[in-house]
Amino acid sequence: MPHHADSPDDVDRKEIVADHSEELTSNWERALEDMQAMAEDREKQGYETLAIPAGDTTTLSPSMGDDDAWGLSYVVPNNFAEEFETLFETFTLDETGVYQMEAGGFVFVVTECIDHDAEVVIFVAGSYDMRFSAGLVRTAVERGAMHTHVKTLDGTLLGTFDHDDPADFFPEPEQFYAYDITESDDPERRSDR
């Protein structure tokens, strides 16, 4: 994404983040606490669980990179990589749960990926800026699917979950379009995302 330090949108966004920084931090902590509580509940039911807090979450649309990968892309800490790969190797996605809340133009999301036969649940928590998500939301709605990519910091893809229903992730897609800066007529606000 091009960065224009003097653009009004950057100034407005910095003010929003500054005004809501305590709330954003609190919401992230809440998402992590909720993820841990859900993992503990699944463990009581006999499931093996892995709960991963992503270091970064990107909303990918097909036009963003060298390939046409799209979905939510999570960068996970290296200390989770080996366990994720071990569980993912034989993982069959039977069910997806998506738990999220929006605050200050950011979405805090926990995705629960369940393999009932193997009794394994992988949780991934992340947050993303709604301003850069409209391309992904449009793609997911048009194609009737969604993807979750799990990567390491160096870009190594550890695995991808393919979800059948984008409505789990975007129950009200139009709310994301209101934040879209990629369609703006103002080149200072336009993004390549």
Question: Given the C-alpha coordinates, what overall shape results?
Answer: globular
Integer-rounded radius of gyration: 17 Å
Runs in which pLDDT lies below 50 for 5 or more consecutive residues are 1-11, 184-193
Q: On the 0-100 scale, what is the average pLDDT?
A: 84
The separation of the N and C termini measures 7 Å
The structure class reads alpha/beta
Question: Can you count the beta strands?
Answer: 8
Explained architecture:
With 193 residues, the chain is α/β, with parallel strands linked by helices. The chain has one domain (8-177). 32% of the residues lie in helices and 30% in strands. The protein has helices at residues 8-44, 78-88, 134-143, 174-177; strands at residues 48-53, 56-60, 71-75, 95-103, 106-115, 120-129, 146-151, 157-163. The strands form 2 sheets. The protein has a 4-stranded mixed beta sheet, sandwiched between helices. It is globular. The chain starts with 7 loop residues before the first helix and ends in a 16-residue tail after the last helix.
